[in-house]
Design goal:
Elements: H1 2-7, H2 11-20, H3 31-41, H4 46-58, H5 67-72, H6 75-80, H7 85-100, H8 105-109, H9 113-120, H10 128-137, H11 150-160, H12 167-179, H13 185-197
InterPro entries: Alkylbase_DNA_Glycosylase/TA, Alkylbase_DNA_glycsylse_CS, DNA_glycosylase, HhH-GPD_domain
Organism: Niastella yeongjuensis
Catalytic activity: Hydrolysis of alkylated DNA, releasing 3-methyladenine, 3-methylguanine, 7-methylguanine and 7-methyladenine
Length: 205
Amino acid sequence: MEYTLHLGKDKKIKKLIDHNGLFTLKKQKNICTYLCASIMSQQLSTKVADVIYQRFLNLYDGQEPSPEQIVATAPETLRAIGLSNAKVSYVQNVARFAIEHGMEHSRLHKMTDEEVIVYLTQIKGVGRWTVEMLLMFALKREDVFAIDDLGVQNAMIALYKLDRTDKKKFREDMLRISKKWSPYRTYACMYLWRWKDNPPPLKNL
């Protein structure tokens, strides 16, 4: 994989590559459903999020619903599967935006990463981090750096001995280090997340 040769120039990332093997990105067909699932999962454990998402699909006979079906679903029905009032509103905002403005692959494919972020964060309830995850894991964009992600931050603090006391300097340090990972920063983030979940011995990094 070409990205491993490039990222492997960073000795700390190379250790993570050697420890965790290769990652691949896959496109998700239904962008609307992906965004809805992302909103549902916020501030929840993976296990709880999976249960709620399955309940959501069960409302539509186990199939991914169309935006029109989501908008037509009564708010109380969505609340009954475990969604807060705010999340019900945000999920329906996403579906309404998909109907009125579109979020098909063909439309988003023509946009740069930053243009996709600007376009989709118009939706109330959809923030920059959520769209960055969508860019990575639904649109298969290889050079996204999730600078605000806590897992990425914690891994970089540990691996590169960064200090977050001065927030401005901290962000500058993260950007400086991440520049050498481009154009494969998405994969670098994946390795940093894997360090957080399953860290190899620090003495080897």
